[in-house]
Design brief:
The complex is a heterodimer of chains A (about 120) and B (about 110). Chain A has about 120 residues and is mainly beta. Chain A is built from one helix and twelve strands.
Amino acid sequence: AQTVTQSQPEMSVQEAETVTLSCTYDTSESDYYLFWYKQPPSRQMILVIRQEAYKQQNATENRFSVNFQKAAKSFSLKISDSQLGDAAMYFCAYRTELPMEYGNKLVFGAGTILRVKS
Amino acid sequence: AAGVIQSPRHLIKEKRETATLKCYPIPRHDTVYWYQQGPGQDPQFLISFYEKMQSDKGSIPDRFSAQQFSDYHSELNMSSLELGDSALYFCASSLGDRAKTQYFGPGTRLLVL
């Protein structure tokens, strides 16, 4: 079974600074998707960024970028120019590319609370 | 753009009662997923449907059942409610069960007293 581990329960960053959230995962598959979801106090689940395992290029979305290391099974999220609105719980998630064989569910890590200081 | 709609948004029930949660996917989306998020926990997958057929099953209690209807909306039926069922229940949808991204609704907060 696939597992996702977020080893940082909580992180803090100063406004306008850069912070990196860590995520590792375990899988025997070669094709899969990785995601970062943001959950603000409203508890809405908001997709931040997606990475396809077959792509070597790291995904970027404005101030958000990932460092995807497939061999190391590592998938970190870098937030640049942090803003107060970035404060939230961040979940790393995994999904197989083969839903017929392994199902189509998202497997989440335990989450990292990000606090942004003004 | 239209999003996933969940109703009700909040629900309070007594132990041993039943509850029905509804999910209306994004228009044209044919796949629906249900997740349960307990306090301070990550979302846990319950069940999913693709084209009205169950496509995957997670740690869903036998007291819970779900189905997807011809208009692709889905309902999660929960019976003999327990205190531990208090949680945020998310529905997500996608276009196809191999879709890369699942789009989440706002969730239904269930409190069992």
